[in-house]
Write a structure and sequence with these properties.
Helix content is 25%, strand content 49%. It has helices spanning 4-7, 24-33, 37-40, 43-49, 66-75, and strands spanning 11-14, 17-20, 50-57, 63-65, 84-95, 98-109, 112-125, 128-139. The longest helix is centred in the N-terminal third of the chain and has 10 residues, at 24-33. The protein is built from five helices and eight strands, in the order H-E-E-H-H-H-E-E-H-E-E-E-E. Helix 4 packs antiparallel against helix 5. Strand 7 (112-125) and strand 8 form a beta hairpin. The strands form two sheets. The chain has a six-stranded mixed β-sheet. Strands 1-2 form a two-stranded antiparallel ribbon. By secondary structure, the chain is of the alpha+beta class.
Length: 142
């Protein structure tokens, strides 16, 4: 199951108001939860990390909604663990409650490495961060 406290945000007081702190380590940790086999195999864990209106533009060019992603990841449960190396994480604030996380991944597909540029939009609502959009774009090694 997802570590529920990692989904919680850090709140910082700002002149009587409370502001959502955009923390790269927190958002990266949430993103990396979705790399873990035990999370991917759990429809409840994946659902907790995604907004209900989640959309993904997959590396293949296919468009997925939340239901399709939850079912697809659960179906991978019997497959060998995902061997994914992620690097170059950057976080950009898009609004008080929305951030964009970008990074690169390298994954082996047989003997062939697949390099992908990835971007995820995370939205803070109901006391937790959830992914609302993800895109994977094929790229070269450099």
């Amino acid at each position: 199951m997802v570590m529920t406290d990692i989904r919680k945000t850090i709140l910082a007081p700002t002149g009587g108001n409370v502001a959502i702190q955009h923390d790269l380590d927190l958002i990266r940790g949430l993103e990396e939860e979705l790399f873990k086999q035990n999370v991917r195999a759990s429809p409840a864990a994946v659902s907790a990390l995604l907004t209900d209106d989640f959309v993904e533009f997959g590396r293949s060019g296919r468009v997925y909604d939340k239901k399709e992603i939850v079912l697809s990841l659960a179906a991978e449960a019997s497959a060998p663990p995902l061997e994914l190396v992620a690097s170059g994480f950057e976080l950009k604030s898009l609004a008080d409650d929305v951030v964009l996380l970008t990074y690169r991944t390298r994954r082996l597909d047989g003997d062939r490495p697949l390099h992908t540029l990835r971007s995820s939009i995370w939205k803070f609502s109901d006391g937790a961060w959830r992914m609302m959009f993800h895109q994977g774009t094929p790229t070269s090694a450099t």
